[in-house]
């Protein structure tokens, strides 16, 4: 029987002892560093009139907890395509002394994902799925670019499904190119699990005629091709995010761990569609997701 994500996590924790609980002190420190990173980014954004807004669980945390979701330890940001391009143009002069910017179309660095990341230099954060990979392993903030969607509903549906296929292919390359030693053991625990991971690795091999970075760039170019403003925006990998642009922009103000930040213009509608009408209710413990961190080092921070 195929392992689901939670079963996989539990088995790894029980049998291989490589996933170490962050602990309350380290969790507090990590969140403090992330807020400091957000404050730095906010300062640069204000200077250059970049209208970022918090995204995903960061919006939920700001509304429900005035900060981080207690069991969460990451930060997510949305940028419009124009502001993403602006960030790329000013990053080296404004932030490169302390941070690394990674993202499609920025430079020739090895890309891990189809979206952007800002890494804090001199730190280390290795997540389980990135073990044995050459990607940057540092404390980070995720940046997701909001693009126009097609006015044609059929094209929207196609784009939504094609995004899933493309991301499946792109992530399969990581399975092939950088085999995870723990997953290699896990996949031997059942026939279906072995078939699944072998299929992912085979798909990664068949698509390795182009580099992982090239695939990420192609993904970004394809989903940013709708230049006409239709009044709707989305982040291409999650179809639930198709909202009228007025739901996102202009930003509203909120508080995140004592820092005044930008939120979607209509956070209530955004959160209801993303998390359900009962988003203010805490989920049961078994549905509270944590990142699988293998190692964490704060460096001088």
UniProtKB/TrEMBL annotation:
A Pfam entry, by short name: LicD
GO terms (BP aspect): glycoprotein metabolic process
Domain of life: Bacteria
Signal peptide region: none
Cross-referenced InterPro entries: LicD/FKTN/FKRP_NTP_transf, LPS_cholinephosphotransferase
TM segment ranges: none
Residue intervals of the LicD/FKTN/FKRP nucleotidyltransferase domain: 45-276
Name of this chain's protein: LicD family protein
């Amino acid at each position: 029987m195929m392992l689901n994500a939670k079963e996989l996590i539990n088995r790894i924790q029980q049998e291989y002892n490589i996933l170490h609980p962050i602990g309350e002190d380290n969790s507090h420190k990590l969140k403090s560093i992330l807020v400091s990173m957000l404050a730095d980014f906010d300062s640069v954004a204000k200077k250059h009139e970049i209208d970022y807004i918090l995204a995903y669980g960061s919006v939920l945390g700001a509304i429900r907890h005035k900060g981080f979701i207690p069991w969460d330890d990451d930060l997510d940001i949305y940028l419009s395509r124009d502001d993403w391009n602006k960030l790329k143009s000013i990053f080296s002069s404004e932030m490169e002394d302390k941070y690394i910017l990674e993202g499609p179309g920025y430079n020739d660095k090895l890309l891990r994902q189809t979206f952007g990341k800002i890494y804090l230099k001199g730190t280390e954060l290795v997540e389980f799925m990135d073990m044995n990979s050459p990607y940057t392993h540092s404390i980070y903030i995720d940046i997701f670019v909001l693009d126009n969607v097609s006015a044609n509903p059929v094209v929207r549906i196609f784009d939504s499904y094609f995004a899933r296929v493309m991301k499946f292919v792109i992530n399969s390359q990581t399975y092939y190119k950088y085999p995870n030693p723990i997953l290699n053991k896990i996949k031997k625990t059942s026939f279906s699990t072995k078939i699944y991971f072998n299929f992912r690795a085979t798909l990664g091999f068949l698509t390795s005629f182009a580099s992982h970075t090239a695939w990420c760039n192609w993904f970004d170019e394809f989903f940013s091709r709708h230049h006409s403003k239709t009044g709707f925006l989305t982040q291409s990998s999650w179809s639930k995010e198709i909202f009228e642009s007025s739901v996102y922009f202009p930003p509203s103000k909120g508080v995140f761990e004592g820092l005044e930040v930008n939120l979607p213009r209509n956070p209530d509608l955004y959160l209801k569609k993303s998390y359900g009408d009962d988003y203010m209710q805490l989920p049961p413990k078994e549905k509270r997701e944590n990142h699988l961190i293998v190692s964490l080092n704060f460096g001088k921070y």
